[in-house]
Prior knowledge:
Elements: E1 2-4, E2 27-28, E3 32-36, E4 48-49, E5 55-56, E6 61-62, E7 72-79, H1 87-97, E8 111-114, E9 117-120, E10 125-133, E11 140-141, H2 143-155, E12 165-171, E13 176-177, E14 185-194, E15 197-204, H3 211-214, H4 225-243, E16 250-251, E17 270-271, E18 277-278, E19 280-282, E20 285-287, E21 292-294, E22 300-302
Parallel strand pairs: 1-3, 7-10, 7-12, 11-13, 12-15
Antiparallel strand pairs: 1-14, 2-4, 3-14, 5-6, 6-16, 8-9, 14-15, 17-18, 19-20, 21-22
Amino acid sequence: MQSIKxxxxxxxxxxxxxxTSFGEAPEIRTxxxxxxxxxxxxNANGNAHTASQRVFGSGIDYHGGAVLTSGVNAYYIWYGNxxxxxxxxxxxxxxxxxxxxxxxxxxxxxxxxxxxxxIPVRNSVTYLxxxxxxxxxxxxxxxxxxxxxxxxxxxxxxxxxxTNGIYxxxxxxxxxxxxxxxxxxxxxxxxxxxxxxxxxxxxxxNPDQCPSACEDQSVGPNGxxxxxxxxxxxxHELEEAVTDPDLNxxxxxxxxxxxxxxxxxxxNTFPTANGALANVQLGSRYFxxxxxxxxxxxxxxxxxxx
Length: 306
């Protein structure tokens, strides 16, 4: 998950796990959050795992849970007021072009296990459209309100019920999330039962509400600092939701998922025409998105693989 500009990365309330020895005792985890810039604290409650389930990787470990290995479908739910905001084209271009890229290929270093066989993640993300929600849950969202937004879109048939999908709730700048947006995190991902199916979804807050917490630069490469900031949060939550969709698959002994381990690090950057920094090109646009953890060799943060 992505955290607040006090740095960016993981979870919610206080602490992520309780252990009596570093990585040996049962770990308790819940939703992972893109934390504030500079904030390294995690927290959790739910899904206990034991050390016996762990398979050690390259600085990150597999705990036996499901992984979205066969290519993932992405859906956007534009929540609030997005009229005249160029974010709708900027972020659609991001999600439409991230699959198949050298950047997303980092996720192929992760795998799930089916019938004792290791199945690597495919470098595939398919954007299948989305929905518009004009404040059905008000301007102050609870965690359950975020799930209700996803459930409403599915129940009304605006988006399909897709267990191989990730639903991104993108909020306009006048919407907050009461469990800690702008003070504890910039975004998060989790899963829940919707329509008797296990549905994966993410909250993506608009950094225009708190630039000092959730934007890395005041001028984005696409001229919309809020949308450009959201691009990095989306990338973060996407790669975590693929490799740890039910919060019981890939994370390290500190509870950090792959994107958490590289939160708010951007690698080699270059200047764009408007003076902003970028580090990748996806389609025809430049973006500044955080690095991801390569689960190969000795491990490490990177912008592409190999």
